[in-house]
Design goal:
6-stranded parallel beta sheet, 55% helix, 13% strand, alpha/beta, 11 helices
Length: 227
C-alpha cells in the first residue's frame, strides 16, 4: 500500500486529488494539509512514501516545503502540482529535490502513474511539464532551443552506451526495478548506472536527469509495465 499526503490550500483540489487516488486500491491517502507548514509536520508524523504538494500555498509554499521534506524525511518522494505559467517555480522545485511534476489540469491517470513512479523511486515528469520546462529553459537567456538541445546531446555523448540507455529510461519515468527488467540485469547494477549518470551529467536527482533526457531527445515511449 502506497501512503500519500496531499497538500493544497484549496479544499476542492484536495478532494479531487483524493478522489482520483482512491480509485487505485493500492494507494492510501493518510493525511491532508492546507499549507506548506502543516504539510511538513504531517509528513514527519505519518512518513508517507509520497507527498503531493501544490506549488503556491500560504505560510510555507510548496517549493520550501518540498526542500524541507527532502532534507528531513528523504524517504518521502515529493510530487509538485503546477499550473501553466509557473515554469520558474518548477525549476526552483526541481533544484529543491522534487521527484515529480504534474499539471493540475492533466489526466487523472497521470496522477496515479506519477504517485506510483515516485513511490517506486523513479522521477515522473508529466509530458506537458517536460515540454514546458525544456521550452522555458530555451527562452530563459541560456540560448536558443537548438543550442540547449545541442548542449544536452553533448553532455549525453559523454556517457557510455549503457548509461545513455539508462538515462532514456529515467526520462520515461521508469524505476530502477523496471529498468532492471528491461535490461535483464539486477537492480543493484541499475543503481550503480544511475549514480554514474547523475555524476557525469552534474545533476543532483533523477528529475533533473530526466530534463536532460528530454532536452537531448532520447526519451523512449512508456514501457508496457508502466501502463
Amino acid at each position: 500500500m502506497i501512503r500519500v499526503l496531499i497538500a493544497d490550500d484549496e479544499a476542492m483540489i484536495r478532494a479531487g486529488v483524493r478522489a482520483v487516488l482512491s480509485t487505485d486500491p493500492g494507494i492510501d491517502v493518510v493525511a491532508e494539509a492546507a499549507d506548506g507548514h502543516d504539510a511538513v509536520e504531517l509528513v514527519r508524523r505519518h512518513r508517507p512514501q509520497v507527498a503531493v504538494l501544490d506549488i503556491r500555498m500560504p505560510k510555507v509554499n510548496g517549493i520550501a516545503a518540498a526542500a524541507e521534506i527532502h532534507r528531513t524525511v528523504p524517504a518521502t518522494g515529493v510530487i509538485m502540482l503546477t499550473t501553466f505559467g509557473e515554469d520558474d517555480y518548477i525549476l526552483q522545485a526541481l533544484g529543491g529535490g522534487a521527484a515529480g511534476f504534474l499539471i493540475k489540469s492533466g489526466e487523472p491517470e497521470e496522477l496515479i502513474a506519477g504517485v506510483r513512479a515516485v513511490a517506486d523511486g523513479a522521477a515522473y515528469l508529466s509530458p506537458k511539464v517536460a515540454a514546458r520546462v525544456v521550452a522555458h529553459l530555451a527562452s530563459s537567456g541560456a540560448g536558443a532551443l537548438a543550442g540547449r538541445r545541442g548542449a544536452a546531446r553533448e553532455r549525453v555523448n559523454g556517457l557510455t552506451a549503457r548509461e545513455r540507455e539508462v538515462l532514456s529510461f529515467l526520462g520515461s519515468g521508469l524505476s530502477n526495478g523496471q529498468i532492471a527488467r528491461r535490461l535483464h540485469v539486477v537492480e543493484g547494477t541499475v543503481k550503480a548506472h544511475v549514480s554514474s549518470v547523475l555524476a557525469r551529467l552534474g545533476v543532483d536527482n533523477r528529475a533533473a536527469a530526466a530534463v536532460v533526457a528530454h532536452e537531448a531527445g532520447i526519451v523512449l515511449p512508456p514501457a508496457p509495465d508502466q501502463q
